[in-house]
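User: Structure with S-adenosylmethionine, tokens only please.
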Amino acid sequence: MAEKGQPPNTVLDVGCGTGRLLRKARKYWPEAQLIGVDPADGMIENARRLTPYAKFYVSQAESLPLPDESVNLAFSTASFHHWQDQEKGLREIKRVLQIGGLFFLADFWLPLGLSKIIRHFQSNNPSAIREAFRRAGFRGQDQRRLWTLWQVVTVGERC
Ligand SMILES: C[S@@+](CC[C@H](N)C(=O)[O-])C[C@H]1O[C@@H](n2cnc3c(N)ncnc32)[C@H](O)[C@@H]1O
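Assistant:
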């Protein structure tokens, strides 16, 4: 079980790209085991080179190569709109998080008018994300829309 107020032991970045956020995480939690997952070989190759102290896997959100309840804190940035099966990805993150662990999801979203114009972009709908979090087994979802950056940040606790 993840302990509130304690630094995380294990931090997972889903869709980590070149590991940019894990390198930042290292500054906050130097003792934590850092793990990145991304389906793009090239991204992981660069991530390994730039972040030698972290573990990286070529895989996707929908099939995380990690044991059940093995992670205290998970996050994902600018990746969710790429996932082929977002609900499956959320269920996988719930599976690998310990009870009480937090998942922070930040991704782009387009208000309805714009998403009708820019059709090729799989826009996230903030209320649909909250509902998907709930269905996947996260509770107490907090959500903020960052209007200037067209980002929506959703936080869920694994229950
Ligand atoms: C715009 S990059 C963001 C990278 C990094 N999170 C960041 O903020 O710098 C999106 C990443 O999502 C990854 N991605 C695509 N489909 C994915 C999936 N199904 N599961 C996890 N990651 C995926 C891509 O390979 C890519 O590296």
